[in-house]
Write a structure and sequence with these properties.
Blueprint lengths: L1 H17 L22 E4 L2 E5 L15 E5 L2 E4 L5 H26 L29 H6 L25 H8 L21 E7 L1 H5 L9 E7 L6 H4 L7 H6 L16 H21 L8 E2 L3 H9 L61 E7 L4 H4 L14 E5 L16 E4 L7 E2 L3 E3 L9
Parallel strand pairs: 8-11
Antiparallel strand pairs: 1-4, 2-3, 4-12, 5-6, 7-12, 8-9, 9-10
Length: 447
């Protein structure tokens, strides 16, 4: 009898493990996956190209000698990240921080469960209970990132921003934390304290961890990054110049929604990329879809390959060697003449989809704003970097490459091979960014 039971158990195991594969090696099927182009991006199919300066540019050859390199396929934003797109990030973090504080205040006041109304009491913003796996909306799943108690932030009730409609004293007390004192506000506008709104995320130094043995926790670092752009760059970048309207309105006014965001340093661009990744993947998780790859800043090689648009050894994204077309119209937004910023019909930045795109469908790879890339500046890096997906990013080197030139630059900086840099913690009125996402698989199999 005992032997019979053993045989029965073995038979059941074989049947359950076999899963009708008839004993054959059929592999383990993952979640359904189809390549999906992210909204607002274009596919840049990988390949080899000659990176660096042409031989006639003797000065440029010092830090950008020609080198044949190969990059894999990736998606890239067809425009620079706009004010409107960056505000989506800012508003999400801002609202998450405020809701977290309101929920904590409701808990201290003994309010649990919350009301269903929008402005009844602090209790309306109480935590919605412990977070259960599979029981969260994308907003709630992502907002757990901010909640050390692992409770559900309430996204069902609108935040009351009008101080004349604050529901109770507890609400007033919480909201006062997020505003500057009255003596620091003017023109009847109550100013938010932007330093109160920060995005935190963790990232592993994969290159260092891959070469190490044992515990990798020391290679995981948490970053806490202020999210608001520095609007004072419009003043600080230009002495003896009237730029107050841009300081006051450029980021916040809807008239500039489709203009490229500026005043964002390299660390903020990285934080935005992480948020965009988490935001999309938590939505996909809620739909039981396979996760997609992370958004990130492009490497210097990826940026130059994309900027060239498939034109080998061209000076500009449109070819060259001139910055005008055959009708004498400028091809990009830059400083074409001494003291004359407006000869190209643009005084400062223009909408991110202005001018003609290059042959990959990418707008303003030259001009408008320079763009952060995920590469540290080293004048000698072309000599020792790999020829396959080259990138040199030294965490101790705070000089980060910017590419493409901007509205305030002369045409030399618009050349697709010209290198420039800013320090990672520097925000400028002429530096923005766009993101990329690795293509999963081989793009040649799309057709």
């Amino acid at each position: 009898m005992r032997n019979f039971i053993k045989l029965l158990v073995v038979a059941l195991v074989l049947v359950s493990c076999g899963n009708n594969d008839r004993g054959q090696l059929v592999g383990v099927e993952g979640k359904k996956w189809n390549p999906e182009k992210p909204y607002g991006m274009v596919l840049v199919e990988g390949g080899a190209f000659i990176m660096g300066k042409a031989d006639h540019d003797i000065a440029g050859l010092n830090d950008a000698p020609t080198k044949t390199v190969t990059v894999t396929s990736f998606y890239m934003d067809e425009t620079e990240i706009t004010n409107s797109e960056y505000r989506q990030f800012v508003h999400w973090v801002r609202d998450s921080v405020v809701r977290q504080k309101l929920a904590e205040a409701a808990e201290l006041a003994g309010a649990t469960g919350g009301d269903s109304g929008n402005d009844r009491s602090i209790g309306s913003y109480a935590f919605k209970g412990s977070a259960e796996e599979g029981d969260l909306t994308p907003f709630q799943e992502f907002s757990r990132h901010y909640d050390p108690m692992d409770q559900m932030i309430n996204w069902d009730v609108d935040i009351v921003w009008d101080e004349s409609k604050y529901p109770d004293e507890d609400y007033v007390y919480v909201m006062d934390e997020f505003y500057l004192p009255n003596d620091q506000s003017y023109n009847g506008v109550r100013m938010k304290n932007v330093e109160e709104f920060k995005y935190s995320y963790k990232q592993m130094d994969v290159e260092a961890a891959a070469r190490a043995k044992g515990d990798r926790s020391e290679y995981i670092k948490e970053y806490v990054v202020p999210i608001y752009p520095d609007t004072t760059v419009w003043i600080k970048d230009f002495h003896y110049s009237y730029n107050e309207p841009l300081h006051n309105d450029y980021f916040n006014h809807t008239a500039y929604d489709n203009y490229p965001v500026v005043g964002v340093d390299w660390n903020q661009a990285k934080a935005f990329s992480d948020w965009r990744t988490q935001y999309l993947n938590n939505f996909r998780k809620s739909k039981d879809m396979a996760p997609t790859n992370m958004f990130r800043l492009p490497s210097e090689a990826e940026w130059e390959y994309a900027a060239r648009g498939g034109l080998e050894s061209a000076t500009y994204p449109w070819g060259g060697p001139y910055a005008k077309d055959d009708r004498a119209c400028f091809k990009a937004n830059f400083k074409p003449l001494r003291g004359d910023y407006a000869a190209d019909e643009a005084l400062y930045t223009v909408e991110a989809d202005s001018y003609e795109p290059n042959d990959f469908g990418l707008y303003n790879m030259s001009g408008n704003v320079s763009e952060w890339v995920n590469t540290s500046y080293d004048a000698a890096s072309y000599e020792y970097m790999s020829s396959m997906n080259p990138n040199v990013n030294n965490k101790d080197n705070k000089r980060k490459v910017i590419r493409g030139g901007s509205w305030k630059d002369v045409s030399y900086f618009l050349q697709v091979s010209t290198r420039d840099y800013e320090y990672a913690d520097s925000a400028r009125s002429y530096v923005g960014f766009r993101t990329v996402q690795d293509f999963l698989g081989n793009s040649l199999n799309l057709n």
